[in-house]
User: Which sequence fits this backbone?
């Protein structure tokens, strides 16, 4: 159903949609979950869709994108979908546990929740709502405060599906888990999905979260991911976003860390109309560490908007953030960094850095690295730069006989590599290396389908010049 | 008797570093404290100067007949204790002149003396700079900022000359110095030796002691003074190495 | 004044600053904890009735015998102000202000047309003597021309004759309106329009006095120009307006100081400063802001809501702001530069100290519009007690501002664990040939530095004073000599009682 455009920014519209479809939306709910939805909807209504007077939305006009008008799909597809028909993961040496959403719905018909031999549970959130209500009630929305976040509240009200991962205490997962949302719909579709990831005490987990467009139709994904990192646990969370120019991702991640835990997040924005990632990292326990890396390579009218809020509420915590962007054509890069060191969070060490390269006079960067500090025994700093490729380095390369285009490419690649080098999965790093090279040469487009899974995997990208010679 | 250390035990974060030291230093004496790395030499220096990270678990230190451990850091300094730091810290934006003038006048005030006027102070600075052959304009350089390793050490001796302490502790002042700088530093120390002051020279090697002749040499090992002697002990140590001491200790 | 002599003098003074003679004085002052400018002068004062209305504005304008265009300006501002809301985006907790409970015009009764010192009320002279600002020229130590403003009225401008010979206009805003209406009309509101923001609009409606400076083409002003602001009367707000115009190739260094009596109530200070620098002109504006900060429980103090902005209108022009902010209960202030002329340059050097319950949200805006423009921001924030201290700055490089550069360094120092230090930089770059760099750090005084100082016999309080002054030196060295010594003392005094 096509709905009148302007109404999408009215809260009453969303309330109405909810009450119209309430029976479908809540069909898998326990009473507890339905109540949570109603609370979230109320919260959303009081907040409203943010406009640009909102500090964190100054540089992104989300209202405009919403009023384009979207359709909904509140029911899972009736016919089972064989994602394998158009999807194949063929990264050399990269073996993952793959779970897939298709247009926002879980696609594995037989096993909505898989229980691995070590006790790990992966699969559909919808199934977990029914089969593991006690875990859901202990964690879902319990470790994240999104009461000031309109989109997260909206998602909490509407979402019935998403990924669910539970890693028991002490389990070290050997294979990365890969969660993919593939979008291929005939009309502009608005999806709301909610993911819950629980890493028990002393466990370790590598997570890939991919968003991919499979056609050229617009899509709006509003998703909410909660990650609970138990005491001494380690979680690596890779977000790979490669959607078409008409599509929007509004993603909220809430990460809650217990003592001595470690969480690294990576946001790799390769392609998309608007990619907005909000990461809220709450360091609740002593000696916990939350690091955030990001790379955005945008061109045309694309926009990448990354927000990192690190809330340090315990002593002896560490946080490091590095976001780098290359902006071509009319592209717009936004970075909102915010470190909050609460009172008595002594011995904090926190650093944030945002570096940008502008390739044209039409491209635009807004960067706001904030520090808000209420404890005195801390070492905090941030830095931001906007500039061009280093002229001296360009000159050096060209004086070695490298032509200007290649020299430019090389330097951009080197600029991006600082982030890629932080990736802890070698096969993934190699694959992303290739993708970034392709992206920088303008060869990556939506017909490459996705980051990792293509029926005909590309040959590795080779530079025309030998890097080792310089 | 200027300084008396009695059965001193010191711990840091619960770990005992000094395990019972006795030492007497009289006016006019130079004591060398030698020993391998990590045996508590710098800890001893820090405890005498009053660094707060260390916990004295047992024993006492009597200085000029007073309980030294009860005095705050700056009072010890004003009573004439000077520590030449192994790693002098940088204080950006604070000029050497301003720093020294504040220190000198604070000490003078403690002793009931009039503060030095600007010109008196400048004269004194020029005079003491020559002692350690410092050429640069200290008036506009920040404390230790941008100083080379050698300059930092010379700067420590310069400050010692300015403040004229009764008990100076040189903590590895010779480490990282080339031969010229070592000679300048030693020369400075020798010129400052007087019958009414004393030095504790902490060093890993014997080479500084070629220039600054000690009256006593103590070997510190595993938090204790395991051997004391005259200056010849330093030579013997140089010749036989610390392995010799280790063997002797373990034989006991 | 002979320039080479001037240079020698400055060198000598430099030496004094490198080694202040007055260390003991500083220590003495540290032990005497009170705000020393807190006295009240008992002087006959003429007040307007409380509150704000069109009538009050007409009253002010009439009192000052203003031309029609100015009354228009005021009324337009007033009507816009009525529709505006006070800004809420700052990291500040501002109690509700009743704008009808403020007296908008208070003037010490001064004989009209005061031109020689003999005619100035002796009480006023005494006040400024007490503040360390002698108005008698022969008492001045260096060549500094002073305009003294008490409450709403400029009481005395010194050095008139010397300046007149060079064609320099340095007078109160009221006089400028009377004697140089064309200049005022041309430039007033040209940098800070009357509807710029809530407080600027309020100021435009009710400003009473302030200083006016005009430096003619090619003239280098040989003396420092200085205005001293003083709030004396109770229940009044101070709304001064300063306008500085440097014509082509001109140079001027301008200093501003301010104090207020200690009162339990909060008093509002909403000033506007506008600077215009034409081609090749340079203006250096220094402030030592020491309004009464309130007592140590956060009672009383000045609300300092100030709009300061400079326009580098011509090519190769330069505007430099230096501020030492130690006073006021709440500070909301962003001295800014609009770099319109090609190759123009903006600078902002700031030390902001907050102690007890003070709040400061201060910083700058550098708006790069012209080609090859450059700007530097050095900000040093120091927070102690229960205070909150924020740096907030915008660097914007517009599309046409090719090859522009900005470098920003914002450091915060925390003394104690009950205060807050925050940094909110906004960077927007719209072309590919410009370079913007921002670095910020937050730290405390290291234990090693303190130990080192104490080992040399310096007590904790003076060690902190020493280290803090060192930390702020990059900014303090930008101040004219006269101010630098005062600023150094102020830093130590403001932090007194902040370490336990």
Assistant:
């Amino acid at each position: 159903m096509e709905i009148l455009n302007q109404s999408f920014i009215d809260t009453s519209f969303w309330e109405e949609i909810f009450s119209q479809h309430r029976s479908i939306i809540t069909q898998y709910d326990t009473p507890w979950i339905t109540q949570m939805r109603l609370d979230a909807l109320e919260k959303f209504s009081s907040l409203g869709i943010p406009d640009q007077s909102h500090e964190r939305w100054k540089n992104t006009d989300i209202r405009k994108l919403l009023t384009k008008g979207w359709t909904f799909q509140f029911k899972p597809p009736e016919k089972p979908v064989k994602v394998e028909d158009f999807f194949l993961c063929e990264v050399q040496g990269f073996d993952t546990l793959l779970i897939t959403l298709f247009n926002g719905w879980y696609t594995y018909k037989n096993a909505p929740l898989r229980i691995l031999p070590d006790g790990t549970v992966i699969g559909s959130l919808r199934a977990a709502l029914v089969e593991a209500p006690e875990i859901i009630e202990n964690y879902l929305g319990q470790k994240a405060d999104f009461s000031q976040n309109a989109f997260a509240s909206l998602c909490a009200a509407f979402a019935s599906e998403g990924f669910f991962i539970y890693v028991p205490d002490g389990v070290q997962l050997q294979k990365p888990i890969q969660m993919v949302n593939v979008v291929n719909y005939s009309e502009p579709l608005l999806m709301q999905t909610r993911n819950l990831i629980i890493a028990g005490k002393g466990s370790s987990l590598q997570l890939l979260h991919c968003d991919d467009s499979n056609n050229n139709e617009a899509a709006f994904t509003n998703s909410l991911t909660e990650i609970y990192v138990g005491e001494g646990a380690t979680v690596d969370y890779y977000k790979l976003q490669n959607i078409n120019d008409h599509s929007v991702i509004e993603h909220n991640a809430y990460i809650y860390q217990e003592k001595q835990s470690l969480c690294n997040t990576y946001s790799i924005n390769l392609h998309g109309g608007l990619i907005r990632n909000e990461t809220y990292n709450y360091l609740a326990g002593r000696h916990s560490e939350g690091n955030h890396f990001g790379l955005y390579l945008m061109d045309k009218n694309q926009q990448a908007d990354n927000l990192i809020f690190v809330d340090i509420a315990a002593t002896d915590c560490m946080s490091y953030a590095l976001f780098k962007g290359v902006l071509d054509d009319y592209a717009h890069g936004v970075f909102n960094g915010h470190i909050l060191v609460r009172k008595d969070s002594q011995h904090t060490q926190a650093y944030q850095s945002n570096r940008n390269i502008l390739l044209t006079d039409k491209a635009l960067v807004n960067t706001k690295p904030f520090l808000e500090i209420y404890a005195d025994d801390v070492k905090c700093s941030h830095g931001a730069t906007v500039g061009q490729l280093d002229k001296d380095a360009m000159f050096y390369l060209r004086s070695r006989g490298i032509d200007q285009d290649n020299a430019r490419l090389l330097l951009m690649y080197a600029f991006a590599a600082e982030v890629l080098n932080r990736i802890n999965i070698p096969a993934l790093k190699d694959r992303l290396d290739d993708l970034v090279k392709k992206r920088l040469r303008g060869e990556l487009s939506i017909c490459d389908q996705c980051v990792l899974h293509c029926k005909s995997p590309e040959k590795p990208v080779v530079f025309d010049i030998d890097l080792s010679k310089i | 008797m200027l300084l008396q250390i009695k059965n001193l035990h010191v711990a840091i974060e619960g770990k005992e570093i000094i395990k019972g030291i006795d030492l007497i230093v009289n006016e006019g004496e130079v004591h060398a404290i030698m020993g391998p790395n990590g045996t508590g030499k710098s800890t001893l220096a820090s405890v005498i100067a009053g660094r707060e990270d260390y916990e004295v678990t047992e024993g006492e230190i009597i200085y000029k007949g007073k309980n030294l451990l009860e005095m705050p850091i700056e009072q010890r300094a004003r009573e004439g204790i000077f520590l030449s730091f192994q790693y002098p810290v940088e204080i950006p934006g604070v000029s050497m002149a301003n720093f020294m003038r504040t220190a000198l006048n604070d000490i003078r005030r403690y002793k009931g003396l009039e503060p030095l006027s600007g010109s008196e102070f400048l004269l004194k600075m020029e005079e003491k700079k020559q002692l350690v052959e410092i050429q640069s304009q200290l008036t506009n350089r920040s404390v230790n900022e941008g100083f080379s390793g050698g300059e930092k050490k010379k700067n420590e001796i310069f400050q010692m000359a300015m403040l004229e302490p009764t008990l100076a502790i040189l903590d590895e002042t010779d480490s990282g110095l080339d031969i010229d700088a070592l000679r300048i530093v030693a020369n400075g120390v020798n010129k400052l030796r007087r019958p009414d002051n004393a030095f504790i020279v902490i060093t890993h090697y014997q080479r500084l002691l070629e220039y600054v002749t000690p009256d006593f040499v103590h070997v510190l090992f595993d938090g204790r003074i395991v051997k004391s002697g005259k200056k010849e002990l330093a030579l013997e140590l140089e010749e036989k190495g610390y392995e010799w001491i280790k063997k002797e200790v373990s034989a006991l | 004044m002979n320039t080479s002599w001037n240079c020698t003098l400055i060198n000598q003074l430099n030496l004094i600053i490198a080694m202040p003679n007055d260390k003991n004085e500083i220590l003495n002052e540290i032990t005497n904890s009170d705000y020393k400018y807190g006295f009240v002068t008992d002087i006959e004062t003429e007040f307007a009735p409380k509150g704000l209305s069109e009538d009050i504005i007409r009253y002010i304008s009439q009192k000052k015998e203003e031309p029609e265009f100015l009354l228009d300006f005021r009324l337009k501002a007033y009507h816009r102000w009525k529709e505006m809301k006070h800004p809420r985006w700052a990291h500040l907790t501002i109690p509700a202000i009743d704008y009808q409970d403020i007296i908008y015009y208070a003037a010490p009764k001064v004989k009209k047309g005061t031109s020689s010192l003999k005619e100035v009320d002796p009480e006023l002279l005494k006040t400024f003597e007490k503040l360390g600002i002698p108005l008698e020229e022969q008492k001045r130590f260096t060549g500094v021309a002073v305009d003294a403003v008490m409450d709403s009225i400029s009481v005395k401008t010194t050095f008139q004759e010397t300046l007149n010979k060079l064609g320099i206009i340095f007078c109160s805003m009221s006089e400028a309106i009377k004697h140089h209406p064309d200049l005022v009309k041309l430039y007033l509101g040209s940098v800070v329009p009357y509807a710029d923001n809530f407080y600027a609009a309020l100021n435009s409606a009710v400003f009473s006095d302030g200083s006016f400076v005009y430096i003619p083409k090619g003239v280098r002003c040989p003396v420092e120009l200085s205005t001293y602001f003083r709030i004396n009367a109770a229940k009044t707000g101070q709304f001064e307006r300063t306008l500085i115009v440097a014509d082509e190739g001109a140079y001027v260094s301008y200093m501003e100081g301010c104090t207020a009596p200690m009162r339990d109530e909060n008093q509002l200070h909403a000033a506007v400063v506008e600077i215009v620098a034409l081609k090749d002109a340079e203006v250096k504006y220094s402030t030592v802001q020491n309004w009464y900060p309130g007592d140590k429980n956060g009672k009383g103090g000045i609300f300092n809501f100030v709009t300061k902005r400079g326009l580098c209108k011509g090519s190769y022009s330069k505007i430099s702001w230096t501020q030492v902010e130690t006073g006021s209960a709440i500070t909301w202030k962003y001295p800014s530069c609009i770099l319109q002329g090609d190759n123009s340059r903006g600078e902002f050097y700031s030390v902001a100290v907050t102690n007890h319950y003070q709040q400061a949200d201060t910083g700058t805006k550098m708006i790069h519009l012209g080609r090859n423009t450059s700007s530097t921001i050095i900000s040093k924030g120091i927070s102690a007690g229960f205070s909150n201290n924020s740096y907030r700055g915008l660097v914007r490089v517009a599309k046409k501002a090719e090859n522009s550069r900005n470098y920003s360094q914002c450091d915060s120092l925390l003394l104690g664990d009950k205060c807050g230090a925050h940094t909110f930089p906004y960077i927007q770059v719209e072309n590919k040939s410009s370079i913007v760099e921002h670095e910020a750090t937050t730290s405390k005084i290291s234990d090693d530095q303190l130990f080192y100082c104490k080992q040399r016999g310096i007590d904790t309080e003076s060690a902190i004073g020493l280290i803090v002054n060192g930390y702020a030196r990059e900014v303090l060295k930008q101040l004219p000599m006269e101010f630098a010594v005062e600023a150094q003392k102020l830093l130590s005094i403001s932090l007194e009682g902040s370490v336990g």
Chains A and B do not touch (no CB pair under 8 Å). The CA atoms of residues 197 and 227 of chain A lie 5 Å apart. The first strand of chain A starts at residue 97 and ends at 102. The two ends of chain A are 58 Å apart (CA to CA).
